[in-house]
From TrEMBL:
Keywords: Kinase, Transferase. Residues 9-303 form the Carbohydrate kinase PfkB domain. PANTHER family: 2-DEHYDRO-3-DEOXYGLUCONOKINASE_2-DEHYDRO-3-DEOXYGALACTONOKINASE, SUGAR KINASE. Belongs to the carbohydrate kinase PfkB family. One of its GO terms (molecular function) is kinase activity. It comes from Streptomyces zaomyceticus. The lineage of its organism: Bacteria, Bacillati, Actinomycetota, Actinomycetes, Kitasatosporales. This is Sugar kinase.
Length: 319
């Protein structure tokens, strides 16, 4: 992001340190480990920034080495963190990730009551929100605490009143809350959302479980102008409020790490929206970003830059 450029995209949420094994096997004494950091909303901000649009991330981090690592990493990716807060009263959260077998990941989170969950409406930079073209939120943040939920609701209200596009990724996390509570709370965001992203199981929080096409169309009747269903290896589809339907196969690649692929997909879709591209081109860029992400270990490390998109052109059979 160019210094002084107002962010085109603003997002808010939790980010945490990650300790991950680098080879299959249990997390045990002597296991080789990789230290990093992650966060769904931060991944989207990085993806949009790498694709050439100014992006900002807001959240709370501890006044500790892990929090400093996250902030330094986001700054290095050109993401505006001027509105991020450090919390002297709570440490940064932690994720432990082990590749228990060659094809099974096991993840443990340490986040309850920690810095990320203490995000509150007063942490938000309203000038940043009113100047953004897109606000992106997820269903993770409202699940963290009452104050974090209030922060999301306030951000949506401010951004929408200013005319920004509101993007919402359902991102349901069953470890944080049950389906009934999630459905009740997150359904309240849909009428104020312009673009909603969900997998079929997440869409079923709000609409009857049917074909992906029918579910996406049903979501648009709840408020969003565009409902994007992420179907993993089967690709994705978008239903629009005017009755349009756009279907996109996935780009075939060798999957190394599925973590972060959905957020990478969202970053590509929103970057293309900021480009002013039509829905078909948004899906195209989203699919490429998702393919890059699953091809590289880590949550955000594999996100592409514009100059790299052609590397997967040969695999993109839908073009």
């Amino acid at each position: 992001m160019t210094t002084g450029t107002p962010p085109a995209l603003v997002t808010l949420g939790e980010a945490m340190a990650v300790v991950a094994t680098v080879a299959p096997g249990p997390l045990a004494t002597g296991a080789p480990l990789r230290l990093g950091w992650a966060g769904a909303e931060a991944t989207v901000a990085i993806g949009v920034s790498r694709l050439g649009h100014a992006a900002a991330w807001t959240g709370r981090l501890g006044e500790d080495a892990a929090g400093a690592m996250v902030l330094a990493g986001l700054r290095a990716e050109g993401v505006d963190v001027s509105a991020a807060r450090t919390d002297p009263a709570a440490p940064t959260g932690l994720m432990l990730r082990e590749r228990r077998t060659a094809d099974r990941l096991r993840v443990s989170y340490y986040r309850a009551g920690l810095a990320g969950s203490r995000l509150a409406p007063e942490d938000l930079d309203e000038a940043q929100l009113t100047g953004a073209r897109v606000l992106h939120v997820t269903g993770i943040t409202p699940a963290l605490s009452a104050t974090a939920r209030a922060a999301v609701e306030h951000a949506v209200a401010v951004a929408r009143a200013a005319g920004a596009v509101v993007s919402f990724d359902v991102n349901h996390r069953e470890r944080l809350w049950g389906r009934a509570e999630a459905a009740e709370v997150l359904a309240g965001l849909l009428p104020y959302t312009d673009i909603v992203f969900a997998g079929p199981e997440e869409a079923a929080l709000f609409v009857p479980e049917e074909s992906p096409e029918r579910m996406a169309r049903a979501l648009t009747r709840l408020g969003p102008a565009q409902a994007v269903l992420k179907l993993g290896a089967r690709g994705a589809l978008v239903a629009t409020g005017d009755g349009g339907l756009h279907i996109r196969p996935a780009v075939p690649v060798t999957a190394v790490d599925p973590v972060g692929a959905g957020d990478a997909f969202v970053s590509g879709y929103l970057a293309a929206a900021l480009d002013g591209s039509p829905v078909e081109e948004r899906l195209h860029l989203a699919a490429l970003c998702g393919a890059f992400a699953v091809s590289v270990p880590g949550d955000w490390e594999g996100l592409p830059r514009r100059t790299e998109l052609g590397l997967l052109a040969a695999q993109d059979i839908s073009r």
